[in-house]
Amino acid sequence: MDFLPDGRYYVSLWMVLQVLVFGWCLPRRPRFFLRMLPAVVLLFLAGRQLLLVQSYVLSVPLVIRAVMGLASAVMLLWISTAAPARALYGAIWAMMTQQTLQNASSVLLNDLLGREILPHYGLYLLVWMAVTLPLTWWFLARPLFSGSYQIGRRHLAVAGVLFAEFELVQGVPDIKIGIEGSPGLGQNYQFVLMNGICLLVALYLVHTLFVKRQAEAELAVANALRRSQEERYETAKRNVALINRRCHELKVQLADLQRARTFGEQQQCLDRLSEAVEIYDSSLTTGHDVLDMILAEQSLYCREQGIEVHCVADGAQLQFMEDSDLYVLCTGILQQTIAHIQNQPDSGQRELDLQVYRRQGVVVLEAAAALSGAGPQPVQALSEGILDILHKYGAELFSTKEHGCAVVRCLFPMLETANKTES
């Protein structure tokens, strides 16, 4: 005689334990066990009542199982710090795994009954749980939920569709277990079991696909960051080389000044020395520290290459951008424009104009260089890092020819919204 004669108690207990298997891999809240005990009792009793409703009041297993899944997700949110989407995803896995294992246990029990082996029903289910729960934790819950993967909307929507199809098929055939002369399993039961296994495999493949996509996106971000760091290193190395060269020139001019004997020679040496030092005292102030640093770096190189830099920039208009994004974007545009200027044969056209202004609610970042003939545009291809930054701020970049100049213009719309978000 079973100590719990109603089989719904076993099914409800199985469901609760299955939810705990997946919840155990989620980040836990403080006082985890104190939170877990009342949640387990409530979900256990609620599951039994919902099974009664399914059997005697409604013939809609999908609705009942969906309510069970929501209750399981609430329990996971109560005992863990997981996001709602992650908790609901764990509940879907728990419900589908529990039902598939229950169907498998029914197949095994039906085979035992066909061999005239009559096991103790309650003890049989408890032994089956004790065997399958550790396997579920080791092969499903642990590899699927131990990582830092974030469940997106599309992933959760696909999982919900698979769950709905899974539960709809579960409610079609008669799947009663034959005990002491009862009708036994329905004719379509094997199809139900195989359908459940196939949908579980499909859910696992969907999980693998989305995890791979997220890993590829993270790898792309890491590669973009690495390329940005390499570019900054090359810029810093180039600037250090320029400074060292200037320092050597200063030493030579100081030596000439020491050797000068007449006032005229001394004055000439002082003029050359003043001209050499002037580059370090020509820093531009735009109202944005990052933009000032970028102009200081690029101006140093431009002065060495004989390129004159003109800047009329209101750097305060770019305060809505993150410092790293502004550095990568401006540096990329200026470097490509400078490379375009270096190809100009006429030294009189070696000029770079940079402007930052606001017009009709749009912030404009503009770089212009003189053209000689039908030259190519200064920006031919954009790196992935710059494209990501443009997409992040909803910006558009245009490369045009205007009044004999090649102009690169970057437009940032919806500035008011961005400023409100920052404040």
Short description:
This protein is α+β, with helices and mostly antiparallel strands.
Describe the structure.
The protein has 423 residues and is an alpha+beta fold. 65% of the residues lie in helices and 9% in strands. It has helices spanning 7-23, 32-56, 61-79, 84-114, 121-145, 153-170, 189-259, 263-277, 289-304, 323-342, 384-392, 415-422; strands spanning 308-313, 351-359, 362-370, 396-402, 405-412. α7 (189-259) crosses α9 (289-304).
Secondary structure elements and their pairing?
Layout: H1 7-23, H2 32-56, H3 61-79, H4 84-114, H5 121-145, H6 153-170, H7 189-259, H8 263-277, H9 289-304, E1 308-313, H10 323-342, E2 351-359, E3 362-370, H11 384-392, E4 396-402, E5 405-412, H12 415-422
Parallel strand pairs: 1-2
Antiparallel strand pairs: 2-3, 3-5, 4-5
Helix pairs in contact: 1-2, 1-4, 1-5, 2-3, 3-4, 3-6, 4-5, 4-6, 4-7, 6-7, 7-8, 7-9, 9-10, 10-11
